[in-house]
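Researcher: I'd like a structural prediction for the single chain below. Treat it as a standalone chain; there are no partners to consider.
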Amino acid sequence: MADEASAAVAAHTRHVADFPEPGVVFADLTPVFADGAALAAVIDALAESGRDPAGAVAVDLVAGLDARGFLLGSGVALRLGVGVLAVRKAGKLPPPVLREEYTLEYGCAALEIPAEGIDLRGRRVLVVDDVLATGGTVTGAVALLRRAGAQVQRVSVVLELEALGGRSRLAEMPGGPVEVSAISVG
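Model: Treating it as a single chain, here is the predicted structure.
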């Protein structure tokens, strides 16, 4: 499953030089998601990280990060038979919200989740996103979910940009390290 997903990512990812700023090579996964077989392989591989070694579902909820993580998180949640939570960029949800500000490679941002209507206390949450770069967005999401009472031990991404060190930020998080699984490493 992981080999098929890795091959799909390699075959369909579009690399764009000097975007969003000079010197950066942007890995555009949109073509991966637009191919039905590639998307299915990616969803299946990401869903495996939500299972224990015996194959049983080991999470209660999938958290997809704004915005491509929404696409992935929904598919993973369906495969696992659990719900999905959209972790939104600031200003997209009605109040009250829980908010976490964080830094990323191009500046500062904030993520939000509803403060009411979803009880995350004690729930085992798998965080899903498209790319792990410096780890700013993912660490912000993990901190936010943990502050809401969720148990977050694992993050699953399509592509990890290993040279940018995001995995090490997750290993050093307050509240304990977060395990990372990536379909492809670049």
